[in-house]
Each structure stands twice: as structure tokens, then as C-alpha cells.
Amino acid sequence: MAFNKMWYTVALGLLLPFSYAHTDFFTSIGHMTDLINTEKDLVVSLKDYIKAEESKLEQIKKWAEKLDQLTDTATKDPEGFLGHPVNAFKLMKRLNTEWGELESLVLKDMSDGFISNMTIQRQFFPNDEDQTGAAKALLRLQDTYNLDTDTLSRGNLPGVKHKSFLTAEDCFELGKIAYTEADYYHTELWMEQALKQLDEGEVSSADKAYILDYLSYAVYQQGDLGKAMMLTKRLLELDPEHQRANGNMKYFEYIMAKEKEANKSSTDSEDQMEQETEVKKKDYLPERRKYEMLCRGEGLKMTPRRQKRLFCRYYDGNRNPRYILGPVKQEDEWDKPRIVRFLDIISDEEIETVKELAKPRLSRATVHDPETGKLTTAHYRVSKSAWLSGYESPVVSRINTRIQDLTGLDVSTAEELQVANYGVGGQYEPHFDFARANEPDAFKELGTGNRIATWLFYMSDVSAGGATVFPEVGASVWPKKGTAVFWYNLFPSGEGDYSTRHAACPVLVGNKWGKYHSRCSHCQQTTWRSGALLVGCLGFLFALHFMVE
């Protein structure tokens, strides 16, 4: 019999430009969205492969059914069957030709198209660094927003649109990543969560023995010998021949015996263990605690007297001709340092244009190394940024002019516009926008002086988290799409205002886009709030950082 030729196609189109073939996907939700499209393309390719396999099996099945009936008839009366010359001819043909064709069909590999697509797309996949970075982001969100493991595992987060949950295997992987970082506190939390979900009956490939092995060691490292022994005993009940567990149990019993011999009081021992555990759990500086409280909305509350000094108004840029007839809305966010917010200051269309221009150029955000004066990546700044010039687009040029009109600062010799997109748990821990006395060369590469002020656009709403906070004064400014905030970093004397130390809180739920713009000038004269003149330049966050010579 003749077999129908089977044709199927698998899309091999590349969804990611070659410029995206790099790591650090986890630092930008904007870039991670492209991975969604890549995965969708692979699913389509996989389904095409399944259809091809099903078609192949269907043809083989039909052949088998037909031959089954034919051979049943033939074997009942072989001589009579072959007495018909046509049957004799067809038997020769089947065995000489058609069975060979069937063999070729069975041996045909239908996976070539899918494997080719996988090979092409794999070069754009995240790597181990991305997976570890995303895992660390979850742990960071857990700490910053005081989330218990069960809440995070069940996906019960505020403002979520697409609820998701972590399997016991996912929890185990988070615990392993924490373990490799010697973070035994989080190792314990996530191994216990994995164990809990398995005990509740979740079907998983995660092995309780493996989990208990990690968990008992993490608990021991935190000083809880009794709990470590209990967990090890449970492990040995599951696997009595577990070599490491048997060795650990002997060691734990030896340590316990030594403690009893030393007549250590249980009270002193427990107090010491508790103190050591607390140090490991809360190994934060005071600023870190204030920062996290502000991120959770637990900051200092202004007194009614101070609140009365905050106003909202229509602002015309000090009688700027462009805004006399159409002033912008402005409101006070904080008094000292004075932080103001401009409302409806950038349109949705302008935001989309800026994002389209910036997205292909996004790369891992850097910070100034105070020792070398050079730019470098840092674990405390998790985002990607891109730089745009006014000459590239009339939209960018128009935005620059708007900022200049409303601040009175000349942007003609400014740094390029900086656009930032935050990743999973994206943040920028407390920092100054201006250079301190011990950092004279902080902006040497830019050929500028210090940063006078900061202008920050919010180009997206954030469902939860993502505030800009000022730990020194207890202020929290929350993202609101289409608005911008502005503050001065330097006093009229040129000295830095240390109360402007600020941070970008981790994004708990959502996607945060910010726009910064650093402006610099060797000869800019700026009229200060007090009327004093200051020579400097402007710098942005879509920040605008104004610089001084």
C-alpha cells in the first residue's frame, strides 16, 4: 500500500532581537515579557510536533488494522487465498515494497522541527543566574513586606490579576538556592513549607528525605540542636540507611552529651540560641529596618501642624509663558526636604513612545563605585536602564523642554534621559543622588559637577510596593502613572542635603517604569528657591538630576 506524504511546519521565527541574548532577565519585567512570547512560540511548535506524531501513528494504525483482517483471511486457507493470482502478486508487493515503506515511516523522526526551534530559541533563554536572581527576589520581597511562606506560596498577594502558587518542588528549589548562599534562615522557612505541602498530600516529585536532609542541617546551623535531632530522626524513619543522617545523628548526640556534661543550664543555652538566631534573622542596620517599614507604608506620620503646611496648587513655572494660561497641577508630598509632585505631567502616548524607544536598549543598571569612581553593577540595584537623547525623538525633546520650563533649570547641556524598568523584586536600596565630599570624581566620566536636584517621572502604576522612600525623614512617595516628583539634593551653599537619601522599594506586584534625566552644565546659573544663584547642571531619574560645577 502507498503511504500519504505527511507535511507539517514548525515556526522558527525569532521573537527576541539579538541584542537580548544576554543574562539578567530577572532585572527587568520589560525584557521578561519577551520570554512569554518565546515560550508561547515553543508551545505552538510542540503542538505541531504532537500533531505530526499523531498523524504518523494514525497511518500506522490503519495499516495494521487492514493487514490484520487480510492475514486472518489468508491464514485460514493459504492455498486457496494464493490461488487467486492478484492475491499472489499483492503479497509479493507488500513484502518487497510496502513493509519497507512502513519501516521508514516508523523510523522517521518527527521531532526535527521542534528540536531545531528549541536550539534556536535556547540562546535567548534565562540561565542559572537569572533563576537564582528571581529566587533571591522572592526572598527579598518576603523580608521587606513581612510575608510568611504560606502566603507567598499560595500566591495571596495584594492586587494580583493572575494568581499563581508555588508547588512543593518550587519551595524546595527556593530553599536550595538559599542554602547555596549559606542563608540558613530562609533555607529553614522554605524547606519547612515544602515539607508542609507534602504532608498535606500534595503530589510532587520532591523527596521528603532530601528536604529533611537540608532542613535538619539548616536548623543546626542556626543553633537549634534539639530540632535538628528531631528532624534527623524523622529522616532516618524514612531512610534508615541514609549515610549522612546516621553520621549527623551520632554527631548531634555527641554534642548534646558534651553540653550535659558541662552542666549548661537549659535557660542559658536557649537564650544564647535565641539571640544567635535573632541576629541571623535580623542582620540589618537600623536604616534597613526603617527602609523596610517605609516600603510597607509604616512610616512616620506627620503631625497635624506639619500637614497643614502641605498644599496643592496650579503652578505656572514662575510665570512661564507656556503655563500662564494652562498651569499644571502640583501638590506637596513632604516639607523637609521639600518634595513636590506634578500631576498629569506626561501623557500615556508620551509614555508609550519613551518605553518603545528605551526597551531595545535596556541593560543592567549600574552604580558609581566610590573607590574606583567607575560604573559597576550591584546587588542592591535590581533594574535595567536605557539612555535617550532629545535629538532622537520630538517627544523626548518636548519632555526636556517641559522640565526646563517648570524647574527653571537649563537642560541644554544635560545628561541624556535615563529610563528605568524594574525586574522581579526590583529595587534600589538607600542612596544619595549627589556626590559626597569623599567622592570628588563621582561624575568625572560625565564631565559634570554635583547634582543639584532630582526629577522623577512615574510611567506606570504599581499594584503593590515600589514606593520611593526617604529613610532619614520617614517619607514615602507612591508611584502614580503620569505624575512626577521633584526635590533639591543640595543646599544653596552647594552642600549636600543628607535628608534626601532615598530608595526605590521592591516591586511586590506589578511592573514599574521610571524615567530619570541627569542634566549637567559647566556654566549653568540657576536661581535657587531663596533667590540665590548657583552655577550647576541638571540631572534626571526619567529622573532629572541637576548638577553643580
Number of strands: 20
So what's the oligomer here? Answer: single chain
Q: Evaluate the radius of gyration.
A: 33 Å
- The proportion of residues forming helix, as a percent range, comes to 40-55%
List keywords for this structure.
16 helices, disordered N terminus, disordered C terminus, 44% helix, twelve-stranded mixed β-sheet, four-stranded antiparallel β-sheet, alpha+beta, single chain
Give a description of the structure.
The chain is α+β, with helices and mostly antiparallel strands and 549 residues long. Helix content is 44%, strand content 18%. The protein has 16 helices and 20 strands. The strands form four sheets. Strands 1, 2, 3, 4, 7, 8, 10, 14, 17, 18, 19 and 20 form a twelve-stranded mixed sheet that branches. A four-stranded antiparallel sheet has the order 9-15-12-13, covered by helices on one side. The protein has a two-stranded antiparallel ribbon with strand order 5-6. Strand 12 and strand 13 (475-477) form a beta hairpin. Helix 1 (29-76) runs antiparallel to helix 4 (112-122), helix 9 packs antiparallel against helix 10 (225-238) and helix 10 runs antiparallel to helix 11 (243-261). The longest helix is centred in the first third of the chain and has 48 residues, at 29-76. The protein starts with 28 loop residues before the first helix and ends with a strand. The relative contact order is 0.10. Mean pLDDT is 79; it is low at 1-21, 276-284 and 518-549.
